[in-house]
Amino acid sequence: MSYTRKKIFGFFAVVICTILIINLQIICIYADDNISENKMELSVNEEVAELTALLFIAGNTDSSSEWNDSTNIKEIRGLYDADNKINSYCIYLSTEGKDTGYIIISTDLNRALIQEFSDKSEPILGVEGYSVYTIENKKYNNEVYKYPQSSEALNKNIDESIYDRNVELIEDVYLIMNSMNVVYANDKTIIADPVAYLKEKYPRFVFKNDSYYNIGENAVPAYEIKDNNACSIYGVATLLNYNLKGDGVSFKSRVEKVKTIAVSGGYCKSESDYYVYVGNLAPLANASLKAYKSNLTASSSLLSWSTGKKSISDNQPILLNIASDGNNYYNDHTVTAYAWTIFKNEKGSEQRFFKVRDGWNTGVYRYVHYDTLTGTYITRFK
Predict the structure, then answer these.
(1) By the 8 A CB rule, do 89 and 99 touch?
(2) Mean pLDDT score of the chain, rounded to an integer?
(3) pLDDT score of 291
């Protein structure tokens, strides 16, 4: 999923950036043997690094910066230590087709998350003392990159407060997601009937439907994803099809056009892997809308029930990019939501659901249980 950065994060992004900048200012304080094993178990994965970078960008899109609301992630490269383990990510950025620098994020919560950044230049990898990484030569796409080492930084003692601030930061913005050792049920739970699902999940209570709204089963037809990791591509094509109906363009043609835009604009991984990074979905949707000369705009944000419910009630389907649905079914998957429903038990407790098209099951109904979702983002057209 993605963000329209300044408007979406607002004051919250400024707070997050303040924490990140404080960490950046203490970048010279590190440790080696003094780091406890239990702390080292908590690390930053690629998705957490990506979202951290986007939050940092969100608070740094002023008039003096090359970054703005259209800045997207061009590429993410893992940087490796002497044991061939990733100890940081270099995130390359682009804005309106122009390279606009990078952000390097540590995977070690005992260090400042933002290691270094620039909105103009490329990273200088291989200069002794320039960065803090203990990294050997590592091949990437048949090229050898020499990563830098700072022995002075490695010999200093850890500032224990860095770890605490990092953990607080990541938990506050749901960036920890899959990097924490969260345990889910072994069996995947498919929600085809919310009543049956709630009866099994909460056997002591009786839930009855309290309210619902459905844009229409025929308004958002089911679709089948036929390309590798292309759930976001098909989701964008579905919203285009709904909003631009009547222009005579087939759904298949829209999918192909969005795929072309995703590849040419660098919004997906490659021509054979259409995975769209969380920060690139709104820019991809906006580029697609522009290609169709539409006046609509797309935006993304962390999902709230009120936002999703209002959009659907306004007859505007939405995309949900789900990190985890709590039922081990929709993990790292984008679905199209076109209806919502609320169930209440005798004590007034609510359970809320979105009805979705998932691109996997074309002949059956599917729901997601909003109250179990983790790290979910909404993309909508206006």
Answers:
(1) no
(2) 76
(3) 95
